[in-house]
Amino acid sequence: MKIILNNIKILRKTDIVLIAVLLIFAVMFYFIFDLSPQTGNTVVIKLNGKIYEEISLSQDKDVEIYLDDGTLLNIIQIKNKKASVIYANCPDKLCVKHKPIDSESSVNDMIVCLPNRVTVEIKSNNKSKEYDAVIRRGDY
Question: Phi/psi at 30 (nearest 5 deg)?
């Protein structure tokens, strides 16, 4: 049994052009916005929105966070390239229950102790992908 496909075209010329244009836009979109997640290598600990300490994930260390009056707020443990809160004097202790964040976490992954106003955040030393300004067009 013979099947004749002489009059049936599977892809037209315009279909091929459309596919090529879509592929070009997809590649441009990928390189412009770079959707691949960044990994971090630095832990930034903030108290009241101000940097308390920055530590490399490669060094094992316990960081005790104190108020000016000497009250111990939190203890942050950095061990095996992971950061976690091991002590908090807040009532709910949600930050202690939070899973550790590590270098495989995406950049800007964060543990927050809201009552004590303490944040533990993974940052990258590579500044090339961070925005330093946002510019908008239009009348304000």
Answer: -65, -45
DSSP string of 16-56?
A: HHHHHHHHHHHHHHHHHH--SPPB--EEEEEETTEEEEEEE
Residue type, 54: E
- pTM tops 0.85, yes or no: no
Kindly list the domain boundaries of the chain, sorted by start residue: 42-124
Two structure tokens written together for 102:
């590590």
Distance (Å, rounded) from C-alpha 43 to C-alpha 108?
Answer: 10
List pLDDT tens digits, range 73-126. Answer: 999 999 998 999 999 999 999 999 999 998 776 666 789 999 999 999 988 766
Q: What CATH class is the domain 42-124?
A: mainly beta
